[in-house]
Design a protein that fits this description.
This protein has 1583 residues and is mainly α. It has 74 helices and four strands. The strands form two sheets. Strands 1-2 form a two-stranded antiparallel ribbon. A two-stranded antiparallel sheet has the order 3-4.
Length: 1583
Amino acid sequence: MATLILPTDWIKNWEKSGKNEFLQLCQDLAGRTDDEDKDLQTALYELSLHVVQGQLKVDVAASILGDVMELRDDMASILADVFSVLDIETSCMEEKHKRDNFTQLVGACLFCVPDAILKERLDPETLESLGLIKQAQQFNQKIVKIKTKLFYKQQKFNLLREENEGYGKLVTELGQELSGSVTSRVVLENIKSLIGYFNLDPNRVLDIILQVYQCRSDQDEFFVSLIKSYMCEHQTLCHILGFKFKFHQEPNGETPASLYHVAANLLQHNLIALEDLYAHLMPVNSTIEEEHKREILEAKQIARKLTMVVLPSEKNDDKEKEKEKDEEKNEKPPNNQKLGLLEALLRIGDWQHAQSVMDQMPPYYATSHRAIALALCQLLHLLIEPLYRRAGVPKGAKGRKIKPLTNSQAPRPVETFGGLCQDVVPMLGYLGPHLSHDPVLFAKIIRLGKSFMKEFQSDNRSESKEDMDALLSCFLSISDQVLLPSLTLMDCNACMSEELWGFFKLFPYQHRYRLYGQWKNETYGNHPLLVKVKAQTVDRAKYIMKRLTKENVKPSGRQIGKLSHSNPTILFDYILSQIQWYDNLITPVVDSLKYLTSLNYDVLAYCIIEALANPEKEKMKHDDTTISSWLQSLASLCGAVCRKYPIELAGLLQYVTNQLKAGKSFDLLILKEVVQKMAGIEITDEMTQEQLEAMTGGEQLKAEGGYFGQIRNTKKSSQRLKDALLEHELALPLCLLMAQQRNGVVFSEGGEKHLKLVGKLYDQCHDTLVQFGGFLASNLSTEDYIKRVPSVDILCNQFHTPHDAAFYLSRPMYAHQILSKYDELKKADKASRQQQQKVHKYVQACELVMAPVHEAVVSLHPAKVWDDLRPQFYATFWSLTMYDLAVPHNAYERECNKLKAQMKAIEENTEMPPNKKKKETERCTALQDKLLEEEKKQLEHVQRILHRLKLEKDNWLLAKSTKNETITKFLQLCLFPRCVFSAIDAVYCARFVELVHQQKAPNFCTLLCYDRVFSDIIYTVASCTENESRRYGRFLCCMLETVTRWHSDRAMYEKECGNYPGFVTIFRASGFDGGNKADQLDYENFRHVVHKWHYKLTKASVHCLETGEYTHIRNILIVLTKILPFYPKVLNLGQALECRVLKICQEEKEKRPDLYALAMGYSGQLKGRKSHMVPENEFHHKEAPPTRSATPAGGIQNGPNNGSSSSSSSTKNPQGVSVVKTEDGTQDDADKSKEKLLASKTSSKSSSAASKASSSNGNGTPNSTKSSKEDKDKVSKEKKEKRDKSSGGTPDNKASSGGGGGGTKDKTQQAKDERSSRDGSTGDKDGGGREKTPGKADRDKQRKEEKQPREEKGGKEGGGKEERSSSGGGDKESKSKESSKEKSSSGGTMKSTTPRSDGADSERDLKRRKLDTHSSPSHSSTVKDSLNDFKDSASKHYGNHSTGGLSKSKERELEKKESEKGRDRSKEREKREDRKDRKRDHSNNEREMSQELKRRKDENGTSSSKHSKSASPSDSPRSADKDKSKSSKATSKEKSDMAKNDKTSGGKKESRHDKDKSEKKEKRESTGAKEDKKHHKSSDKHR
């Protein structure tokens, strides 16, 4: 043989080199690329032959052959062939050892050659010798049997090799060229012939037909018709297909797509049933369900991992593992035959069977596989193509045409919108979020939706209403289930987002928000892929928000934009949650939102509303007194975002409206922020005086100087807000709901809420109403405004809008209408060029416009109201504004100067480019021109208004009832409601009062109006909210400004008040001449009155500060801060306030920090104003020459010709508004007594403050050198008083407190009679205003008199019930005589504010009614002490000129009877008095009285009281007002002394004697007080 391949030298030197050379040879031969292996076989053969011949050992050869086996895969087969040849050769050899060597070699190589190959190649005897088979003979027999069975036993030819000719001809027949002449019928006949001739198995033939069809899948029509003709049973075909599918179900098997195609076609033509075939497909349904659940769990785990805090190293490891898993999944897609069949069904358009397959799987499981999703998308493309071509292709676009399916069984393409519901909508439903795989189809569906919505909204509808509604529902479902979830899975596709917005914006916002809600809260949980996307979005959002700052807004904004294109709901939800915690993120977040799409802005609006409406969030802080910070943050974001970006506002506005409907006012904060940011209209009560002044000008001045921040470029944003309000008809409902909700806050919401929070909500509601109304007035056109706002009577009566709000809303309408009518009249009469004619036209226009308003307002109040106020006056007051009353020249000048300064700065700025410099200069110039033009326009307007008012003023107020009544109505219905409405309205109210005064309106008493405003502010202050108290304070400040201006300059007073009817004091015309006596209030008396007002303010302030109530203290501090420029002006009043405020600072430092801050702020400012305060004697003239007589303090005094006192008196109602008593009606005594009690409590609580406030008021003789001493005396007295109170007080104290200091035998009866005889008695007991007499004795007397009131107060508070009894039943007899004298000298009676006995009351009331039959209109202050002092003054000075309605004798008789009854009632009380103490006290007082009488006679021997004027009407406000009951008793005593004098003297002498008596009595009182101090121990015993 070919020994050349294996030289003998190799065998000889085998161990040295032969082995390696043989291996190298085998490697070279095995590495050849040619197909021939002869050389390799030869080499192996020669090696084996050397072993057989014994030249090479068996084990050496076996090892080398083992090495060779690794060179090639088929090396074992090659070696087996070599062994087969050697087996034949050695079996023929005679040498037995060679055969043994061969057998040993084969046995040694069994480890590398498989047994099966050897059994196939070697002889049976060899196999037996090798031990591979047991017996050779049995093996041979078995082979024979198998071969016989294989080749000789058969019924039908089932295999190709059985009848290769028949099957060969069959394959040829099926594989021929299918031309026109070759049809399935012809081929079927030939197949039948072949089966019969060659005895072929019919099932095998059918299998071959399917196999060929699988190879020629493009010939669907031919093979389907052939199979239809050939087959007999459906089950047979189904089984054959099933076997084919099972053949590919091995672990690594892959089913060919052609088989799916064949099965799908057979299903489509109903040649097999889906249920039959479905059983043969893998995997089973349970496996699919488990896999789907597993995917959801994995997705949730991934989401959970992303939300957990993970260390960086662990995070990286997890990401790597996830990547590996994803790669494995992508490498080995599961052999899911059901999905493969489904894809094939979709490819051929068999939707019916495909739908059945998908119904048996979990939702979206099938379409989550990309191939199936794309197949379904392709089918949808084909179906919508005709409709898309007709209705969806944009103008100018050509689009890519799609060929229709040739399959006749496929669904029909859609031609109309109605056809979409049949197949397209269900297909999209199955596709779900996986439409994201085909953005082109996504865009087509959206465009079809846009086209449908346009047709739906138009009048020319092709379908019926029911069909269109059904289609709308279908498109909404598609949007919810397909479009939005698909957008989520598209990776930041901004174009698709904008395309979708083009469709969505045609929906109303209610539909859109419903879709966003479903998208945000439900969609993300329906699919594992969406769960993962949500988690990834949140993770990414966290990453961005952690790094967002003002410096990196741009890059962060881009990242937010990219993230928001696909998942805006999740992103915004997280951003909003962060903003609720960290409000400093608002500015950078707002700036970073500029890369959002229109759809994203709309989603942002929805997310904000959803966050606001979150029921789990509390809108109040835990202390229940303030609004939660998260709500405030969201509101701020709302305003900023709505202004900067084109967000639709309808939903937000409707949300606020719905909340108001539900009675919830928290969310008004949102509306407030939106209007402020978008329209630039700020609402704040903290504006400066300059801003307030600017707010009274035109719109341009308001914008330039009226707000804290000049918000420019609000034109577009305010237009958007206006359009949203008008389009959705929300302007008026919001106004009405806010107006109604103000009271709802208090009465509906406020029940369980903290008072502080209720006040804040009320203020928020009110401020938002004012702000919103201002926005509507400045932005709505005249037509829009008039069309939407009904008349004021409808607003009030039908919509129950409060009157102030109703007029606030109607006011712009009146202004618009008047100007429009004015323009019409001017155009109609073009000749009227003169100013006078223009003004006439304007007045005419006002009359035409306001006449219906005058009629409308009549229904707002009872008919009785219009007896005092004319509807014209009422409507004029409510329809005008500060813009109408005055031109703020200073504000215009100030803003123009600012603009000039800006222009100068621009010119001097060298760095600014010339173009910009020019542009800025032009802007400033234009603004300046606008301001000047606006000022001119307003000036003309104000002149027209003033002319109109001048013509109207005579008809404003009627004289049907008293001036007191008129002022009451004016305060109740006009002034008080409006002065707390807004800061500008507060100024307006003060200016309007001044204007009415300047216009000299008949029947308007300016003095009375001011008096009613200043006299008792306690109730008004207590009932205000925080912001209302600011406005009320501003109102008082403006009123005080006017009063201070008049007070400070006599010339100014004479000019502005001297001859004005508002300062006329009219007394009853009941003198001998029978005519009215009118006189002006002179300057000095006016200064006294102003001092009284200041004192009243001090008293009210101290009272509020001492209540301990949060609201009282807060409000009075706010009011005091506001009026600080003009109050306090008097040093001692300022000191009293300062003392009390410092006490508040100490008390509230730890308890209520906000009150502490207010008090400290006011205290500091008050100290700063100390330099501007003056002593009391500089504030008003307290000293008088000896020839002058004084009138009681606090009264409004007349000149020389004083008339009698007015018959009508007044009290205060709880609102601080005066209520007038007419002749036939009296005010309830309970109110007076309550008020008196309140005043006495106030004075007792504020003993330290009041002592300072009244340091110079002890006896009406101001002496600045004495004030400090008197203060010290008072402090020491007060300490003793406290001790007296604790011990209950002595009988002396009781007697002095009951009788006002003693002076007659029965003090308690005297006090009772005093109260009975006086009407409205709160006069000053020391109000006589005696002339100052120098000397040490007099100073001592003054001090004694100062001590007495405090001792009285101590006795009263300490004595309890005994005090009341002593004050009720004392000196009736003596008092009744005095009372009769007083009544004979006064034209009318005043009611007392102190409690009285019922019997005396009833008789006195009868007598009072008789006396009041000749009443005249009220003339003076309604404050009780003022009126009493007037009466007192009249009785002292002009008793000879004024007589009562009855004769003196009759009066005496009546008084006698009355005093007798009083004496009887008081006997029991007198028994309880200590007679010894009373006698001692009486004797002391008598001595003092006689001395005082002598002194007074000597001093006043030449004085004449007839023509004297008051020297000091308000000398002692402390004693006059601090303790009303005490002062009333004292003053009554003075009057009784005067009445006694009247019996013996008249005229001038009578007046002098009255004064002497009065001063004697004062002396007596002070002596009594001194005696009380001296005998303190004995009085304790007596008690």
